[in-house]
Specification:
This protein is an alpha+beta fold and 138 residues long. It contains 2 helices and 5 strands; from the N terminus they run αβββαββ. Helix content is 33%, strand content 38%. Strands 3-2-1-4-5 form a 5-stranded antiparallel beta sheet. The termini are far apart.
C-alpha cells in the first residue's frame, strides 16, 4: 500500500527548484543593475584651486586620492571666510592625469571632473573622478 507522502514529494521538489531559480535570477538582476548604476555619470564640471594633497591609498585596492584648496572668499568688509577643501579621486588606470596633477601641485589649476552616482569600494573614495587638468596660472 502506497502512502500519500511519496506521491507529493516530486511536486515539492519542483516548487523548491522554481523558488531557487527565481531567487538566483533576481540576485543576478540586482547585481547587473548595481553595476550599471556604479558606472553612471551624474554630473560633470570644473573646480579651480591649488592641489594641496595627492596620495595613493588602500591596502589591497590602491586608489589615488587628493584635495584641492578652493581658497577663502572675501566678504568685502575685510573678513575672509575660511578655506574650503574639495576631495577628489583619480582612476588608477589614468596615470597621465595623476602625473599632470603631481607636476602642478602648488600652482593654481582647473580640474575637470565627472561625478558618478555610486562607486565600488575599489574604484575610489569619492564620487568625483578627475578627467583632465589645466594649469590656470603659475
Amino acid at each position: 500500500m502506497e502512502t500519500t507522502s511519496a506521491i507529493n514529494t516530486p511536486g515539492k521538489k519542483k516548487s523548491w527548484k522554481k523558488w531557487l531559480f527565481f531567487s538566483v535570477l533576481l540576485l543576478i538582476l540586482i547585481f547587473v543593475i548595481y553595476v550599471l548604476i556604479c558606472g553612471m555619470s551624474y554630473s560633470s564640471g570644473t573646480r579651480s584651486g591649488v592641489v594641496i594633497k595627492l596620495s595613493q591609498k588602500g591596502y589591497v585596492f590602491k586608489t589615488y586620492e587628493g584635495e584641492l584648496n578652493l581658497g577663502g572668499i572675501s566678504e568685502g568688509d575685510g573678513t575672509i571666510m575660511p578655506t574650503r577643501i574639495w576631495r577628489f579621486s583619480v582612476h588608477k588606470k589614468n596615470t597621465g592625469v595623476y602625473d599632470a596633477i603631481t607636476k602642478s601641485q602648488g600652482k593654481h589649476v582647473r580640474l575637470y571632473y565627472k561625478e558618478i552616482l555610486k562607486n565600488f569600494f575599489w574604484q575610489s573614495e569619492t564620487p568625483y573622478l578627475i578627467e583632465k587638468v589645466e594649469i590656470v596660472r603659475e
